[in-house]
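re the bet — no i am not wrong, look at it urself. input seq straight from the record:
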Amino acid sequence: MRTPRQAARVVIVSPSGSVFLFRENNVEVGIHWLPPGGGIDPGETPQQCVRRELREETGWTDLEPQRLLCTWEHDFTHQGVPVRQHEHVYVTTGPRREPVLEAPDIHWQWLSPRRLATLGEPLWPPRLPDLLADARDRPVHLGLLA
């Protein structure tokens, strides 16, 4: 049985179209790339979560989620607990810059659209290049993905 977990992330796109992502290695899913974000705290909205996580993970306080890009669910192990995570993924534009806060064990990179499309390692959310290329006004609901 998996514990339900709510999370929110924000995809930051630079004026040139590059995307800011972290590269992580989870014991269950292995290496994958994902935008800043994390678990939604009790009483917090997904948008508030995104702002807090951006501040905690990058030190940036000047970016706001502009629109909901997609939602999706996936199973993985978080801090030793099997979870089914429901994610709200927002998108925003921002300058191409380095994080203010940099942890030595966190790898980040600005990826060009071409590099993002040919990465060869899993992306959270899946289909991220397609989602960014599709300029819909309404979010895409990807559902439960393995």
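see?? The domain at 3-144 is CATH 3.90.79.10 (Nucleoside Triphosphate Pyrophosphohydrolase). told u. also The longest helix spans residues 46-58. so pay up
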